[in-house]
Amino acid sequence: MINIGILGYGYWGPNLVRNFNNSDQFKVKAVCDLDRIKLKPLQQAHPFINIDKTFDELITDSSIDAIAIATPISTHYDLSIKALQNGKHVFVEKPMADTSLKCMQLIEESEKRNLVLFVDHTFPYTESVNKIKHLITNNILGEIYYFDSTRVNLGLFDFDSSVIWDLAIHDLSIVEYLFDTKPISVSGVGKANIDGQPINIASISLNFNNNLYVHINVNWLSPVKIRKILISGDKKMLVYDDIEPTEKIKIYDKGIDVYDDLTINKIKYGYRSGDVNAPYLKQEEPLLKVVENFADVINGIDDPLLSRYQAMNIIKILEAAALSIRHGGKPESLI
Amino acid sequence: MINIGILGYGYWGPNLVRNFNNSDQFKVKAVCDLDRIKLKPLQQAHPFINIDKTFDELITDSSIDAIAIATPISTHYDLSIKALQNGKHVFVEKPMADTSLKCMQLIEESEKRNLVLFVDHTFPYTESVNKIKHLITNNILGEIYYFDSTRVNLGLFDFDSSVIWDLAIHDLSIVEYLFDTKPISVSGVGKANIDGQPINIASISLNFNNNLYVHINVNWLSPVKIRKILISGDKKMLVYDDIEPTEKIKIYDKGIDVYDDLTINKIKYGYRSGDVNAPYLKQEEPLLKVVENFADVINGIDDPLLSRYQAMNIIKILEAAALSIRHGGKPESLI
Amino acid sequence: MINIGILGYGYWGPNLVRNFNNSDQFKVKAVCDLDRIKLKPLQQAHPFINIDKTFDELITDSSIDAIAIATPISTHYDLSIKALQNGKHVFVEKPMADTSLKCMQLIEESEKRNLVLFVDHTFPYTESVNKIKHLITNNILGEIYYFDSTRVNLGLFDFDSSVIWDLAIHDLSIVEYLFDTKPISVSGVGKANIDGQPINIASISLNFNNNLYVHINVNWLSPVKIRKILISGDKKMLVYDDIEPTEKIKIYDKGIDVYDDLTINKIKYGYRSGDVNAPYLKQEEPLLKVVENFADVINGIDDPLLSRYQAMNIIKILEAAALSIRHGGKPESLI
Amino acid sequence: MINIGILGYGYWGPNLVRNFNNSDQFKVKAVCDLDRIKLKPLQQAHPFINIDKTFDELITDSSIDAIAIATPISTHYDLSIKALQNGKHVFVEKPMADTSLKCMQLIEESEKRNLVLFVDHTFPYTESVNKIKHLITNNILGEIYYFDSTRVNLGLFDFDSSVIWDLAIHDLSIVEYLFDTKPISVSGVGKANIDGQPINIASISLNFNNNLYVHINVNWLSPVKIRKILISGDKKMLVYDDIEPTEKIKIYDKGIDVYDDLTINKIKYGYRSGDVNAPYLKQEEPLLKVVENFADVINGIDDPLLSRYQAMNIIKILEAAALSIRHGGKPESLI
């Protein structure tokens, strides 16, 4: 049983408490938040969880094995580094930190002390992304042509960040998980429509050394919520629509066939249409899988779905994308 | 009555014949196509339309007042310039020509001879785009934040062109029609996934001197057909979904409210949600409006919805976007 | 080559002319309609089709082999019987006639004279219904539990008829085609909401000697158009949504599993969920298949998908359903 | 503060506990269930709620003012009557009891003792149904032509009951709430497809003395979940789709216009199409409104949205519908 303390009980903290609680591998010992009022319903529901400690007290508490961090992004580094320095395994919400330099320092600290540094990117743990990984790994889609994501909604404006740090990060974690190759450059465009506020609409594209192309379109000021990813390969194509309650993934036996036409000694092209299949996906809470994977990593019996280096790489891409946006789309090298 | 001859009877030509025929202002005198077999059903249905002339004979025929051109893009310039030089008004399918230089030459020729040069961009003539123009002009949406279009489907690969010349051109014609301001630069990204073929997936973004942002996402290798444009202003937001059979436009009384909070002396933000309205749109064939507008322009009683200079400007943007795509997104100036 | 004359050129007549024309097995010799003005565009497009004959002249014309009838329902019997008496094969729009007695007389006349009497029920000739027939015949759905259709829209009010004669007739033709068993009774309910007008909303249900249950819900005053049929068997279930442009049929690997639980010596039930599959359906015009089947029946090389007795049976069910509606749902025997 | 005890902690009980807890007007003193294991998480979360009493102890506990009953249907009467006889106000899940006779006895007992007998029909408390009530009451839809509901899904089979008691009861509660007039007869059809099990697919229709028509289609063996109600009046029409996350209600400015055509001295009809409006609906938990209305009724400051007589009337309609189903649709009088 791993004793865990949780820092931050705002938007995401209650989900962490619930899932660490539901896991047999963890015991939630303490939760803290600067806003004590938020913790009252927690205390009522779980009288045996300590809510009276400060962040520092919790991080230095010798009865605690691991710290989960669900505080504002700007505090991730400070709290994580302190927790590592006090010998705690760290579970930190994405993004790992607000600069890649800080990510590197966290990685070094965790390696030096032989501690787990685990970043909570939830999407790779969903049934949907897992199914797509399977379709790619088993060459059912064929060679992948592109990954094109639209992730738009009204709010949440995150006034410390921008829409790419808030929304595109999800797609980047999926791309990191699905594809073995690393992007060689990124281009970004976007706009801050509200005076004095961060960029609220943007799109970024990743270039690779192979045939793959990635485009991610994000928006905080959309009247409708869209969560739609198109992925096409030379064998099959798919749509992953995360709004759909049941048929989240549809696999289309569609594509363009390239063949030699010997009669005219030319390459020809033809479109192919076939069945559509929506595979059954179990409805499981991915966050429970995340926390159990964290336990397995601590216990040395499994690897995380995304390594700390991959989590850092996502930050590097976001930094380069932000730079490219400032330069109107000028591509930034990632190598 | 304007006597018109139509060049090209492939994909779009039959639509031109039908609509010029349905208009009281035109008499279709002749239609020609290099592939004579395509003209057979036309001859059966319309025995009085001449189908036996060559392109040159038709262009020089003194009984013809105007020429409509629906041939491959690469021939637009040659046929248009010849028709103008023979004193004919010209109705040419979009794009006007395959370079902006040729567009300029056509414009100069038409101005010198005082002839109409009319480019068939159909979208501004639809009930949907007309309704959006009304909403913008009457300040119902407020100051426009962005125009974000997704226009994807499987095929048609146009092997002389690329997906931006085939699909993004529609959005550019809508943007030209809706907004008074001109973009100052364009950035584009994209990929040619099929060896030896043109770019099949791309997105381009336009930057303006004001708050407006335009993003256009096009794709020839999508398993599903999407025609969805989001437009948000500081008062209302809308979705224009051209696939929807009836409720093509939905106006959302949604947005972000910016206000001074005097108690804390700070600007604050709040999200607002309200009714959704789908205005009734008549189901009329826009191409009939196009040809009747062409007649009115010839008769000097109306202007086209898009001028020949606007049609040329669309070509300039496409040229710059193609250049930007080759440079990985590096923005190209448009001024 | 079968010479055919077509009576009635209103809503459906032009479709008949087009498809008989497109078939290699027919030559359209003449078309007539009481309203001569409707025939003008036809004459322009097809100068060799005679449009100057009266109904009687056409029916008695010795150069004509077969007569197609697309006139108002109330005239079907008179025109059909005359055509048969003059030795013509008859192709008549559904419903065959406005009473089952008249249907019987037509059948007897056609049998006596050894002529084809063919009723145009189009749905069995669609790719969708054909696919469903295949799924049932090959036991892929298992034993069928029910067929439940919703067919509603705004208009067309047919003031000589009622909504069940206009809309439910389509479902009855599908049911006749799909299932081997005959219903033993029918119950109907409905309402005429507009004073002095026929019933505009109704539902009818068919009872069978086996496990099958059929329910059909029709409505002329619906704000939205719905064409949705649910069919469930003990193995799989399907939804046939005729509004969907591409995925008209979705097959669900869902159901209730019934099994013996030996530990408690009881029958138990469990729900099963699996993949969803939308089979590819070719986009072909079913009416062309109808007319070609008509030719094959005349030539003695095929049977119609629905026999004349089945077409009459549909009328019997409609008559009984109308009677049941008048009695508030009291079931009417069909045997 | 009203002290309440809750009987039954299965499917619905936890919702009751949560909402009675969230209301300022109630104090949840005790919860009991025959299956003690289900109560364990409740005890953890709410250590001050007593979970150790039997049903009888709780009903006779003098510190308790009111009893909420969320046990199987067959126990509703016995528990309710005992609670009333012990002087408790009663909040009972729908259906009030399994026969109308038992309903009448409960009503009489509650009236004799001047106690509140409140049946939890949740739909009238939703924002959606409330909005529809407003549209009807304010004559925005005009005279209502029909109410047509489709309520189908896979499961839950309720093996003590049938699909009409499980699903159609919701529509009947909405109809009772929306319309002032009472149905004069009911007709039902349906089928039990699974051997030895209750009816799993059925439709019932209600006849009224005025122009109103009600049709309700329910199904436990549908591959898809549908919750769609069409309501048309002579002014406007609406669709209430409870699956839609945001635009649950759409109001269509559509209909049939009836007018005198003086030139031909006849009544004529025309279809009208206009805008579609989806009114904004707050996202509130209706069950909280239910429990607060219960408190207000106990305190004598408000009436329930559905009276106990209306709740009993729903049972009468279900009994008559079940009888009609047994007789193949033969209508049963309700007066």
Structure characterization notes:
The structure is a homotetramer of 335-residue chains. The first copy, chain A, is of the alpha/beta class. Chain A has 9 helices and 16 strands. The longest helix of chain A has 19 residues. Chain A starts with a strand and ends with a strand. The interface between C and D is large, with 53 and 54 residues.
What's the helix-strand series of chain A?
EHEHHEHEHEHEHEEEEEEEEEHHE
Largest sheet of chain A, in brief, is: 9 strands, mixed
Q: From the structure provided, what is the oligomeric state, counting identical versus distinct chains? A: homotetramer
What is the helix fraction of residues of chain A, given as a range? 25-40%
SSE blueprint:
The structure is a homotetramer of 335-residue chains.
Chain A: E1 2-7, H1 13-22, E2 26-32, H2 40-45, H3 55-60, E3 66-69, H4 76-85, E4 89-93, H5 100-112, E5 117-120, H6 127-137, E6 144-154, H7 163-178, E7 185-191, E8 201-207, E9 213-219, E10 221-233, E11 237-241, E12 249-252, E13 255-261, E14 266-272, E15 276-278, H8 286-298, H9 308-326, E16 332-333
